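Q: Structure tokens for this one, please.
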Amino acid sequence: MGRRKKDRAPRDFPFPYHTEIELTITTLTNRGVGLGRVQLPEPGLKSEGLLHDTCKSDTSTQPPAASDWVVMVPFSLPGERVRARVFRNQKNFSEADLVEVLTASPDRVQPQCGLFGQCGGCQYQHLSYGGQLTWKRQQVVELLQHMAEIEHPVNPVIGSPEKFAYRSKITPHFHPKPWTDENGTETYPIGFLKRGTRSNIIDVPQCPIATPAINEKLATVREDVCGRLERNEFKKGATLLLRHAEEGVVTKHDDVIHEKVKQGEGNSPLRLQFLARDFFQNNPFILPAFTDYVRQQATATGATHLVDAYCGSGLFALSLARSFEQVAGVEISETSVQFATANAKANDIDNATFRAGDASAIFAGLEFNPAHTVIVIDPPRKGCDETFLNQLFEFGPKAVIYVSCDPATQMRDLVHFKTANYTLTGVQPFDLFPQTRHLECVVTLGKT
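A: Here is the predicted structure, written as tokens:
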């Protein structure tokens, strides 16, 4: 038998477990966590009492004998003075729970959900919506500077018309065995991961960011699942699906559903069909402005041809098709290509074709002239892989519209675009996910 590794002892520097400190929050991380700094004493002055007294007030007039130490405090806001209880020391920073807000930010508001702070779904319900947009923009600015090393204006975030009750898809989870709560009662929680855990599920009877129709359906779904759990009908846990579409709220993963996307002032909506489990933007209220902006950026390049390189069921390709001579959609999933082709026919769009592309030869057989082609990419959260980027740069389109649900991986990829002689010309964040740390960002790049 191999030797079992010893459990690593928790770090007790600079703060013993559950030390309470006071500090001022100066910014938010891109994960929505408040960040502040405290001054630590010199290494020779590490007595616990002196350490606690020194860190209790970072406004001390004593000489700054030591470096600043970062402390992360969830649910705190920039400008706030807070008391926090340290629960973990990392190599370069500490993590702490918020104990008390001593001086509140003018942007602090009362959360609408009673589970806020326990459920891991939302990070910003305590922050005014204007404050959310301000800080989301700032996070894009900082990521652009520090990860891509680019100085470029970032437009104000375009907000969602609906701040709550906007989400058209939720995926609650459950375990097959009951959990024992603090009172010793066995329960079957159905909901989302508890904040700060990887497997604990918090029971969520209603979700205020989901549409009213989803919440109405959620009640009956929960009742059915709870009954089956009590009868031991599940051998393992599962993830439920509730998706609000034209058909109502669908709960079967393989059902074919329909979505309507408005296409600008005076235009008829685009009607798309796809499987309920497939990826599709989950905020229908902001989708018209979102697709219109991508269209404006793509047409402004002067390109006559467009390629949608992660086309799915055809959202961007078909939304933009009437603005270009020819459009090609490329997608690894053959099922998605079938839906995209059917969607083009259903919307009387005859200048768009779709094909399933091999991951190692995505642009093979594409006869568009690169000098007259703009490419729209909307990759998964992990961003673009090296193989895809190499093929994109080898094709060498006139311009690229990069849509991302994770600005951090997007800015990482911009480094490669710089090396391939593409210049950033526009940065526009969209808040598709109010009350959460997530946002979409559209960047426009031109070949130099």
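A few notes: Residues 212-230 form the longest helix (19 residues). The CA atoms of residues 172 and 343 lie 29 Å apart.
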